[in-house]
Amino acid sequence: MASVSRLLASLSLTVAALCGGSSSFAGPLIGKWPDRPIHMIVPASAGSGSDVMARAMAQRLGNALGQSVVVENKPGASGMIGTNAVVKAAPDGYTLLYTNASFAVVAPAVIRSITFDPTRDLLPIAQTAAGGVLLIVNKDLPVTNLRELVELVKANPGQYTYGTWANGSSGNLMMEWLKTKTGMKMSHVAYRSVPQLLAEMSAGVLKIGWVDPVAPLPLLRSERIRCIAVSGNVRAPQLLDVPTLGEQGFQFDTVGWFGMFAPPGTDAAIVARLADEVNKIQGSEGLKELMKNMNFEPPPIKTQKQFRDIVATDLNVWKQIATNSDIKIEN
User: Keywords in UniProt for this one (predicted)?
Assistant: First the structure.
């Protein structure tokens, strides 16, 4: 009898070791998970695009899991406050991160004091939306496409400035990349926010700028500003008449996106369940309509490995541009 007990104990230890060495998170956890509310951290302010998408996703995910998913906004420090809260959270499936590419891969590419590595410290669950940033101009600028803008700026070197929502933003990096490709000479103006940039452009103070795909839609519809290019290779759903950078001869595959992550070490079965539910939710008509209205597209369903590869590739792309353009931010 004692030998049987010892054998069972030995088998138990072996199984625990194969499952990761810790019986506290092995096997049984997914069986009872979730048995309490899940907290979804958003490293952006309430009302932002990330917040709107997170709340839509949280409601649907909660319904699918039979447990409430509570959105918590933790903005600040280019997304580092909220992101670090998740990186340091217990890997028990009850703390998730809902973020965007600007915070997850652009900020780590340019901020010297960044305290996390997105390829090591964030466990990808699912990419939930994708879309490019917009190259816009004042309505009185005599250009209707990227080629005409390049010709105008090159004919007047140093006379034009372009604006974005921050130093080291994806818009800032995109234009520096374009300047390298075309030989344009322009200086950068970093605004405190996209609304401030749009107000300056609408008034004619700023002539050229990069913005997110949502904020400028009312001004574009009123024709007070004009969009001449969308980053990436897929046209924006609300601006189907505007060609992409790729269509205009400048291949750039990296785009903006929203995505969900878990702390490193989270049980693989929990992550797989979350990925499965999120990917199902993405196919719902209500969420598709929300994405379209926000000028984003639901991306093709990707495996966790595919999303992990996107994070790593995008981080390297932005790092290379930042290095080539000598852009580093002290945060």
Answer: Signal
* pTM recorded for the entire structure: 0.86
Q: Is the peptide bond before 34 cis (omega within 30 degrees of 0)?
A: yes
CA pair distance 190, 24, nearest whole angstrom: 49
Report the alpha-carbon distance of residue 87 to residue 85 in Å, rounded: 6
Instruction: Give the helix, strand, coil percentages of the chain, each rounded to 5.
Output: 45, 20, 35
The token pair that represents 275 in the structure block: 């990925």
Tell me the domain boundaries of the chain: 30-131+256-325, 134-248
**CATH code of the domain made up of 134-248:** 3.40.190.10
DSSP 197-233: HHHHHHTTS--EEEE-SSTTHHHHHTTSEEEEEESSS
Position 175, amino acid = M
Q: What is the dihedral of CA 195, 197, 198, 200, to 10 degrees?
A: 120
Place of tokens 């990349």: 177
DSSP string, 240-271: TTSPBTGGGT------EEEEEEE-TT--HHHH
* β-strand pairing of 161-164 with 208-211: parallel
Q: What is the pLDDT along the chain (331 residues), one digit of tens a residue?
A: 444 343 333 433 333 333 433 333 444 456 789 999 999 999 999 988 899 999 999 999 999 999 999 999 999 998 999 999 999 999 999 999 999 999 999 999 999 889 899 999 999 999 999 999 999 999 999 999 999 999 999 999 999 999 999 999 999 999 999 999 999 999 999 998 899 999 999 999 999 999 999 999 999 999 999 999 999 889 999 999 999 999 999 999 898 999 999 999 999 999 999 999 999 998 888 899 999 999 998 888 889 999 999 999 999 999 999 999 999 998 6
Domain 30-131+256-325, CATH class in plain words: alpha beta
Cα dihedral 299→303→307→312 (10° resolution): -140
Amino acid at 171: G
